[in-house]
Amino acid sequence: MLKAIAMLFAVLSWAPATAQQLNMTPSLFSPGAYGQEYVAGVDLPILACDMSAAGGDVDILSLEAQLNGTASFSQDLDATSPAALWIDDGDGAFDSVADQPVASASLLGSTLTFTLSSSFVVTSGSSASVWLSLRPSTNAGVGPIDTFSVVIAGPQAVGIASGQVSLSPSPIQSSVLTIVELTVTSFSPSCGGKGDAITIRGSGFTAPLEVRIDGALCLGSPSVSGDGTIITGLSPPPQPGLQSKDLPITIQTSILPTRLMPQTFSYCLNHGTGNDGTCSTCAVDAYCSERWVVAIIALVVTALPCRLRRYSAG
Length: 314
What we know:
This protein has 314 residues and is mainly β. The chain folds into two domains: 19-180, Sandwich (Immunoglobulin-like); 183-297, Immunoglobulin-like, CATH 2.60.40. The chain has three helices and 22 strands. It has helices at residues 2-13, 73-76, 290-313; strands at 21-26, 34-37, 44-54, 58-68, 83-87, 100-108, 111-122, 127-134, 146-152, 158-160, 164-167, 172-173, 177-180, 183-188, 191-192, 198-203, 210-213, 216-217, 219-224, 230-235, 247-252, 259-267. The strands form three sheets. Strands 1, 2, 3, 4, 5, 6, 7, 8, 9, 10, 11, 12 and 13 form a 13-stranded mixed beta sheet that branches. Strands 15-22-21-17-18 form a five-stranded mixed beta sheet, with no helix packed on it. It has a four-stranded antiparallel beta sheet with strand order 14-16-20-19, with no helix packed on it. Strand 17 (210-213) and strand 18 form a beta hairpin. The longest helix has 24 residues, at 290-313. The N and C termini lie far apart (144 Å).
């Protein structure tokens, strides 16, 4: 009888050991949506996650992420190293030199699979931050813009040696990375004035955008073609300064900061254009014809006081 009571007490007092658990959540410093022009061989961060362990150390073996976006992933990501996983060095900023790479991904369709070649252990009671980066190929952003985002679908996407995985939220979703190649092949007319319709041709144009001539904002409401290759709906602003020929033109899009166009613009007093696209009334020197008007006015203003003094003396 006593033996049975002792056995019952042992059963009731026994409790299983706490299972190892890996908790995974997006980091506060995970990048928001941003755009980038293609740069060869550069890893671009798209997601950062914090990992913490409880109930014992957790050995992470693999990670699977799903790609979404408008890009053709097999063509627009680097064939050798389409994506990589990094351990943050503690400063909360992605740095491919200072952060520790722990895995490169293989790409099959839209699935990225990271298999760690060396042990990545999150010790119990501590945490680590990891970055997921993409490496675009030379095809990315050519013509239409290319967008990328990644999703960690659920606990089953994280492979660990033993224990459980918890994602918060589940799934974990990155922001959107946009790759664009901005080019301007033509700006017409090359010479003119207020009211002339501007047409800009190139690639990588995204609305909203701003176009400026010598720092002055062009008039109108810009309209971008569906394929991002033509801008219309703008006209030159009033002449912003004394200089009127070969003025710089800049463009700023919703994705990229200000860029200087290879083309220039010139103002003319009587701003019709010839068949060759040059201003029909521009002088051959560095200034347009209205500069002569300004010069004559200045000469008159300078000479007038002298003439008045002569009359007074007489």
